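so the lab meeting is tmrw and i was supposed to have these ready like two days ago... anyway. pasting both below. for each one the top line is the aa sequence and the line under it is the structure tokens. i havent really looked at them closely yet so no promises
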Amino acid sequence: MADSFNFELVSPERLLLSEAASEVIIPGADGDMTVMANHAPVMTNVKPGIVEVKSASGSSNRYVVFGGFADILPDGCTVLAESAVHVDDIDREALEQRIQNTKEDLQDAKTDAEKSRIAEHLDNLTTLQSAV
């Protein structure tokens, strides 16, 4: 059996999950990353996507996150999400509305840097939409 570590998924509204995990897959800013026990310390931005948690007991859960950051230590990992919900509870209409709002923000963007940032966020949201 693989070593376990403490994993917490926190949103501004509440603590969604706190349990011993054997593996967590996080949509990091530079690509998906797998966290396991004794991982080197890392702090990274989290892009919109799916966090998959494999618990020490063998069960698996998936959560939709809309950005945030992850603090990874050898004995634990905490994801502080801007917004998060279990994948079974995702409101597809709310996700579609978020995408529509982001498209409007992109049209209203004034600078190239702002357009680039919003376009990347829109790309992340549409990728997420296809994943759920």
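ok protien two:
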Amino acid sequence: MSENSPQSQNPMPQQVLIYADGGSRGNPGPAGCGVVLSNAATGENLENISHFLGTATNNVAEYTGLVLGLEKALALGIPEVEVRMDSELVVKQIKGEYRVKNENLKPLYLKATALKSKFKKFAISHVRREQNKEADRLANQAMDRGA
């Protein structure tokens, strides 16, 4: 289910960048998410996740990518994360700028906000799709596997 890159022998960094993406072919349709965790200081890739979700909406896939990235950072013992996503909706909901109206997104939103509170430092920002290519590739890889 997951594509994991080999971890280096270096100690875990203080801060990681998490690039997360999700997508579905049809809305809802076959869905997947991709996550890239890298050392914020060096850019070294720490982990790649490519996860097939079955049938889901694009927004569910985006949120699932965020949740999986945060869970992996916690599992690695990382105290500080900076998340970058091309989903403006998810970013603005996590920042509290938009309300979560969709009932299917509320559980994922609550899980993500509970996870973010476990970090010493948490930041999330919206990036253009071109800046999120690797996470997008991993999400598409997951959808290809599930098709």
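from a quick look at the 2nd one: The helical segments are 58-75, 88-94, 106-116, 133-146. The domain at 15-146 is CATH 3.30.420.10 (Nucleotidyltransferase; domain 5). will dig more after coffe
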